Task: inverse folding
């Protein structure tokens, strides 16, 4: 699996750190309540198919990247800088 | 048909024409008392213990593929009870005791081999951690022996003890640990459940779960709708999809774990050996193949195959630990779909839907849990009370933060286990 960094281009998967589902960008408000925080920290859609997850180009430019990917085929469909996507769109 | 030495002798002398199928192939009935979704090791053992311990036999196990075709036939067959934390420790102890009586209980040879398991350590800090783990195992009533370097050398003379980066300081020896023939475990439970009247329905994929007024009433499948009073979800890596049919999101992310097997060799590795620093573990099957694996690929995946970086890492770790295996040829590699929880420990619990039960989150350690998991899940489904050995496996521990069981001490977060 090779991942395209929007800044550095297509690179070996080993250069990237996997954070998890892109829900990580949709952080609830501190007072959003137990259910919202449980959903954010633990609960996952866990799709078999197209998913969006958050990676960091750890051994490259250090950018955080939202990768659109197929969990069944390992095909990487799209990638974008997390900074460009914004917090609200993460989920 | 019951297996015995006499029967094998008779069949051997008469051309093996008297063997019959190990289980029936029934069509689904319109209604059951209990439906178990998932005909893997955990689902089959659940059905078996429901019948054996609770006298319930109007049960169907629904399997979307064939019996033995999922993770129960794709793992590295290790059986052990070397967990540290309360909650896990008593459960795996319970499961190992069930393993030790399993073959007589099922009247089936699952080739359970208690050849001993050795976890190696490579620093003073790791020695302390393993000494503590060994004490926890002994307190639980299981066996653990802390070996120094010479002690390890007596068991495993072929290791590279002088590795500059990870010299071997010793190991934690768990003599009752070992392996079993994974397919035979599935077949043995399937046959034993079938003999007690359980319907094993293969090629039957569940497509929906029917719920009325907060209570489960049945399932829809590719072979029609089936009513049931109680339904158990035991589908490992597919837990997220099946739970979604009941409107649930789970604390599960499915990852790929790779495994490897070499060509058959003469006996060379007598134990199960794990090399903690390199994320590598290995045993030798009775057929002679070296069976080994490493860590997760560490990204969500349903591909049932991994990528090459982890292949390279596992091979490097193996060569670092035991250079003698370098000329063995790898025959096959494959990937399994692991239902990973944030804290790395499993879930056996009720759900918010009455009559719907959940058994999942076995991460990369489900095989050794097959007897205990089915035993405890059957107890929960039959009595609506938690089995004493599985009281820690609550679904709400993530929401409340109470009772998290993070064996690795890395934090309760999806990408850390």
Result:
């Amino acid at each position: 699996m090779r991942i395209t960094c929007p800044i550095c281009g297509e690179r070996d998967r080993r250069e990237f750190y996997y954070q998890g589902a892109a829900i990580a960008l949709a952080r609830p408000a501190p007072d959003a309540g137990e259910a919202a925080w449980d959903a954010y920290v633990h609960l996952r859609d866990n799709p078999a198919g197209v998913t969006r997850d958050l990676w960091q180009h750890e051994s490259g430019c250090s950018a955080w990247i939202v990768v659109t990917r197929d969990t069944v085929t390992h095909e990487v469909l799209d990638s974008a800088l997390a900074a460009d996507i914004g917090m609200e769109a993460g989920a | 048909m019951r297996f015995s030495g006499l029967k094998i002798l008779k069949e051997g002398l008469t051309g093996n024409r008297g063997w019959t199928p190990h289980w029936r192939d029934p069509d689904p009935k319109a209604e059951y008392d209990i439906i178990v979704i998932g005909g893997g090791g955990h689902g089959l053992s659940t059905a078996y213990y429901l019948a054996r311990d609770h006298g319930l036999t109007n049960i169907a196990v629904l399997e979307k593929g064939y019996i033995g075709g999922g993770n129960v036939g794709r793992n590295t067959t290790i059986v052990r009870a070397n967990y540290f934390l309360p909650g896990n420790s008593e459960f795996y102890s319970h499961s190992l005791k069930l393993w030790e009586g399993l073959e007589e209980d099922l009247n089936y040879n699952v080739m359970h081999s208690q050849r001993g398991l050795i976890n190696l350590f490579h620093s003073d800090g790791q020695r302390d951690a393993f000494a503590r783990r060994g004490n926890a195992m002994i307190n639980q009533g299981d066996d653990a022996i802390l070996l120094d370097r010479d002690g390890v050398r007596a068991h495993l003379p072929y290791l590279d003890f002088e590795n500059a980066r990870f010299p071997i300081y010793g190991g934690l020896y768990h003599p009752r640990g070992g392996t079993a023939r994974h397919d035979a475990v599935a077949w043995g439970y399937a046959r034993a459940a079938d003999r007690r009247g359980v319907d094993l329905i293969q090629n039957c994929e569940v497509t929906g779960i029917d719920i009325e007024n907060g209570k489960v009433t049945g399932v829809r499948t590719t072979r029609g709708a089936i009513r049931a009073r109680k339904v158990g979800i035991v589908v490992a890596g597919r837990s997220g999809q099946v739970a979604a049919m009941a409107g649930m999101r789970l604390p599960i992310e499915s990852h790929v774990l790779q495994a490897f097997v070499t060509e058959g060799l003469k006996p060379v590795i007598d134990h199960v050996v794990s090399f903690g620093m390199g994320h590598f573990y290995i045993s030798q099957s009775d057929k002679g193949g070296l069976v080994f694996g490493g860590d997760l690929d560490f990204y969500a995946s349903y591909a049932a195959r991994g990528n090459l970086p982890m292949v390279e890492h596992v091979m490097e770790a193996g060569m670092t630990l035991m250079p003698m295996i370098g000329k063995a040829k790898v025959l096959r590699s494959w990937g399994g779909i692991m239902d990973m929880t944030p804290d790395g420990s499993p879930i056996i619990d009720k759900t918010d839907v009455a009559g719907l039960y959940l058994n999942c989150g076995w991460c990369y350690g489900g095989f050794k849990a097959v007897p205990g998991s089915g035993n405890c899940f059957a107890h929960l489904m039959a009595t609506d009370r938690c089995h004493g050995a599985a009281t820690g496996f609550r679904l709400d521990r993530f929401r409340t933060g109470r009772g998290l069981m993070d064996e690795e001490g890395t934090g309760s977060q999806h990408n850390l286990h």
